[in-house]
Structures are given as structure tokens and as C-alpha cells.
Design a protein that fits this description.
This is Ribbon-helix-helix domain-containing protein. The chain has 72 residues and is α+β, with helices and mostly antiparallel strands. The longest helix is centred in the last third of the chain and has 14 residues.
Length: 72
């Protein structure tokens, strides 16, 4: 697995950065594409639903994991 890489996202008009490994960025992008949404829109949804104690990067990783587990 690669080291986390920081990328910028726009969530509801506000810029933020998230650090994820390339493998998670690729999976996250693939999920967004399959659902016909942008990465920013999907990240905003995850951000709105996450528990405030968790960080956005962790919430995205858990979303990706759950998404793929649901398809097994």
C-alpha cells in the first residue's frame, strides 16, 4: 500500500484537503463514477453523515470498505 497523498476537495463550497493512499483514492473515484456522482459530492455526503469524532479521511476509508464489502 502506498503512503497517503493529500488532495483538495470542495465540500459545499469550502475547500479542504484529505490524505488517502492511492488505492483508496482510486477506489473512491471508481465508486463515485459508478454512482454517477463527483468525488466532491460523494465526499460531502460522507462528511455530513460522519460522526464528528472521526476524521474525513477515516470516514472515506470506512465508506470505501463498506461499499466493496456490500458487493461480495
Amino acid at each position: 500500500m502506498s503512503r497517503p497523498k493529500k488532495r483538495s476537495l470542495t465540500l459545499r463550497g469550502h475547500r479542504t484537503s484529505v490524505s488517502l493512499e492511492d488505492e483508496f483514492w482510486e477506489a473512491f473515484g471508481a465508486i463515485a463514477a459508478r454512482e454517477g456522482r463527483s468525488i466532491n459530492a460523494l465526499a460531502a455526503e460522507i462528511d455530513a453523515e460522519r460522526v464528528l469524532k472521526s476524521g474525513l479521511a477515516g470516514a472515506i476509508r470506512l465508506y470505501v470498505l463498506a461499499w466493496y464489502q456490500a458487493r461480495d
